[in-house]
Amino acid sequence: MKSFRFCALVVAVLTCGLGLIQAQNDGVSSSATDQEKRTEEKHTKPILDALKLNDAAKETKVREIVGEQIKALNEWHEKNDAQIKALWSEFDKARSKQDEAGANAALGKIDGVYASFKPPHEKFVSELSAVLTPEEVETVKDVLTVNKVKVTFNAYGEIFHGLTDEQKAFILKNLKAAREEAIDAGTMTEKSAFFKKYKIKIEAYLTAQGYDVKQSYKEFVAKQRVEKDAKKAATAEEMK
Questions:
Q1: Which pLDDT belongs to residue 7?
Q2: Chain centroid to CA 181: how far?
Q3: Residue 206 · residue 160 · CB < 8 Å
Q4: In this structure, how many other beta carbons lie within 10 angstroms of the beta carbon of residue 220?
Q5: Nearest Cα residue to 195 out of 185, 208, 205
Q6: pLDDT tens-digit series, residues 224-238
């Protein structure tokens, strides 16, 4: 009888212990799921706000497509970010030394790493294109890259005076190419790095077109400083 009671007690303890472990696992699982939902909402809400679809079915589909892409991106970056970070560092060091060959070699390696994410990237764009218009797909890409195409294109117009339609088209084409790569980046810093990659091409092109790139930047910065000082002085005068 004592033996039976002891066995029953052991079973009860083990059952209780397993129940606690299961509850803990469920808690971890629930926490992970909640985090995934928050991450998904963080990315999908700005997109849906910008699209203004006014179509519940389309909104649901876009949410699903973006959610799947965010999950795929996170999983891919977990495996590849250490390597990518080292390569961007290699690129920056080569650029600081004005080592064009070294910088290009680093970019080639980065492209090689990202090549493995090409299928999910193409799937993402294809699925969006099946639901949205080309203009709306552009909007999604712009939101994912904080409108860097528009902001940078407008800045070039202010920095480099007298750009022809052909020159503007070249700049826009390269900025959109930067955006296409940047939507796969894991951080805003890396998104900016992809744009830097194409800015180098744009500025080399403008130099070949007869622009003094460094001087144009100096004049633009000086102009901004003057405007900032004038605005500050005007504000101070109003407060008197």
A1: 44
A2: 9
A3: yes
A4: 15
A5: 185
A6: 999 888 888 888 778
Q: Which residue do the tokens 């799921």 mark? A: 33
At position 69, the amino acid (one-letter code) is Q
Query: Domain limits of the chain?
Result: 43-144, 145-240
* Residues 220, 232: Cα–Cα separation, whole Å: 18
**Sequence-separated (6 or more) residues with CB below 8 Å from residue 48:** 59, 62, 63
This prediction's pTM: 0.81
The CATH number for 43-144, chosen from 1.25.40, 2.60.120, 3.40.50, 1.20.120, is 1.20.120
Residue of 118, 84, 117, 87 whose CA lies nearest to 104 = 87
If we measure between CA atoms, which residue out of 207, 203, 103, 192 comes closest to residue 156? 203
